[in-house]
């Protein structure tokens, strides 16, 4: 996932970040909600918002996606009950399912002192890395690859991707956002080439905590939501604009 810019123009003043947990929501319903929230933000009818939710199993194709990165045919996806949507965000193909925390960021970049798309993407990565640290998971950036990767720099084995990021912009107002793997069944990523990166292994908070000798946490998903919410609030409200 990555970024896509659409009809950029000066924006409005910013506000405090509103964060809402929406539970499990069908992808198309969430897209309609995002469209309306973006409209409201551009009209100054609401402040910046972070919509946190999960999706039933679904494959989404960004503006940079390639058909060969979906490894199942449309009939095979349908047989598994998996919807497939083309979406107005940057990046390639990704997979959503329960156990993955999806965050849709509707933020007016023009209300910040430096409205820069690349800086905004790095900010999302930084907020996720900080939240993962609070959850006892070491995470990092990899230069040239948008998203968040687990573990420290190493030459042993493939890079382990724990969060994907892809945004779109309408008049400097962002939409879409990130997908953080918490306790998701990773088998679904075998049906695609995640983000078009054939040399990457998908991982999750649950897998990484187990890898490091941690115990299973029955409250992991709620803790992940709390840590992500706190981290994004620190970044967007208290950090540099």
How many β-strand runs?
12
- Top-tier CATH class: Alpha Beta
Helical segment count? 5
Runs in which pLDDT lies below 50 for 5 or more consecutive residues are 3-14
| CATH architecture title | 2-Layer Sandwich
| Helicity, as a percent range | 25-40%
What overall geometry do the principal axes of the alpha carbons give? Answer: globular
Q: Would you identify the CATH H-level superfamily?
A: Bira Bifunctional Protein, Domain 2
**Secondary-structure element string:** EEHEEHEEEHEEEEEHH
Look at the helices and sheets and give the structural class.
alpha/beta
Spatial gap, N to C terminus: 23 Å
Largest beta-sheet details: 9 strands, mixed
Protein model, in words:
This protein has helices at residues 27-42, 74-79, 117-134, 205-211, 220-238; strands spanning 3-4, 18-24, 49-54, 58-61, 83-86, 93-96, 100-106, 139-142, 145-150, 159-170, 173-181, 200-202. With 241 residues, the protein is of the alpha/beta class. The protein has one domain (3-238): 2-Layer Sandwich (BirA Bifunctional Protein, domain 2), CATH 3.30.930.10. The strands form 2 sheets. Strands 1, 2, 3, 7, 8, 9, 10, 11 and 12 form a 9-stranded mixed β-sheet that branches. The chain has a 3-stranded mixed β-sheet with strand order 5-4-6. Strand 8 and strand 9 (145-150) form a beta hairpin. Helix 3 (117-134) packs across helix 5 (220-238). Mean pLDDT is 88; it is low at 3-14.
